[in-house]
Amino acid sequence: MKYIGVYKMFLFVFLVYVLYVCKHHLHPPSTDLRRLLHRLTIASSLSIICFSLVYLLTGGCESELAENPEIKPSARDFLARASGWRQEGNGTDALGSGHAAPETNSSGKEWTAARRLPQALIIGVKKGGTRALLEFLRLHPDIRALGSEPHFFDRHYSRGLDWYRSMMPKALDGQIVMEKTPRYFVTVDTPARVHAMSQDVKLIVVVRDPVTRAISDYTQIISKTPDIPSFESLAFKNRTTGQIDSLWSPLWIGLYAQHMERWLAWFPRNQIHLVSGERLISDPAGELGKVQDFLGLQRIVTDKHFYFNKTKGFPCLKKPEGSSKPHCLGKTKGRTHVSIDPEVIRKLRDFYKPHNQRFYQLAGQNFGWH
Fold first, then answer.
1. Which of 4, 54, 98, 120 has a CA-to-CA distance to 258 between 20 and 30 Å?
2. Would you state the pLDDT for residue 287?
């Protein structure tokens, strides 16, 4: 319509011009008049052709887009795709920044994948079931968890938070980033360091009968260093008097009340969730449900995801996403424990009894360790 209007205006101007010429050349010889009209015709034709070309090259495309809005979305989509985030093999965006990078879906909504500091930490305890808990939680679509143990707050704190952030997996808005390092629970400086990073971080501790945990810990140690002394000789300062060496690492870790008090000095009790290592084996779905509630997530990981492996004595995942086979934890999990003198076990239970009672008070629940 705009194109026709321009032609009408040009025709009006041309007619005015012809009338003007005729008025001033009304009585010239007929031959001169014919020449004049011939020149006007050629000039007007050339003008119309030139004007049309200029119009098409400048205003035509713009007016078409303006008058046909359905063309615009596809153009915007093309630009979005051309400038959108491209995932590289190393997990960083195309610019290599490792920070937020937009990804646009067909509806035009932007999602943001970024490396963020964790909002939740599995801080302990060693040989309590932390690896099983992490693997089970990774089934949840709203959890992004680091597979390895970064040991930032106990070993690599001097590297700074930027280094720590770079270790985290990319996560979308709304997903929870988490990692596990069981040593955090027993390291003296860790609670203050975690608090300096975030006062709102959610903390998860998997606890287990401290005597059973100590034997499991020792079983792992001798698998790597088989020439060390026996459990019985290391557990006592003096076997004759029955004085227990509470500073020996496998026993010291089991002093849960001592470690818990250090964390409660920095974080409120409702920010620390305790998982029963025993129930994580006997009722994994039940324990996972409580953890999902604690993290504010929908209960997506349920009993349909597990089956009990009688050979290993542990629950396994039926069919993890992207796999057609069931998945159990590695060979290092579920080892057969070394045989310990029953009298030594009895003495250890007597030793831990007051510490366990104190821990039950701090935790607000009885774990039933006898």
1. 120
2. 96
Residue 340 domain-assigned (yes or no)? yes
pLDDT mean across residues, the chain: 79
Please check if 128 is assigned to a binding site: yes
Does the annotation flag 216 for ligand binding? Answer: yes
Q: Confirm or deny that 187 is annotated as ligand binding.
A: no
pLDDT digits (tens, 9 = 90+) for 326-347: 567 655 555 688 899 999 999 9
In a domain, 69, yes or no: no
Distance, CA of 171 to CA of 364 (rounded, Å): 34
Token digits for 159?
Answer: 């590297």
Pairing type for strands 202-207 and 272-276 reads parallel
**What dihedral do alpha carbons 208, 210, 212, 218 form, nearest 10°?**
120
Per-residue model confidence as pLDDT tens digits over 284-309:
999 999 999 999 999 999 988 786 77
- Pairing mode, strands 202-207 and 120-124: parallel
**Residue 208 assigned to a binding site:** yes
Residue positions annotated with a catalytic role: 127
Q: Is residue 94 part of a domain?
A: no
- Residue 189 or residue 88, greater confidence: 189
Q: Which strands make up the sheet holding 176-180, listed edge to edge?
A: 143-145, 176-180, 120-124, 202-207, 272-276
Check the annotation: does 322 bind a ligand: no
- 335 known ligand binder: yes
CATH number of the domain bearing residue 263: 3.40.50.300
Weakest-pLDDT range from 87-101, 135-149, 237-251: 87-101
CA dihedral 273, 279, 281, 282 (to 10 degrees): -150
Q: Number of folded domains in the chain?
A: 1
Boundaries of domain holding 242 = 117-363
Q: Is 98 exposed, middle or buried (0-12, 13-18, 19+ CB in 10 A)?
A: middle
Assess if residue 139 is contained within a domain: yes
Task: Determine the Cα–Cα distance for residues 298 and 142; give it in Å rounded to an integer.
Answer: 9
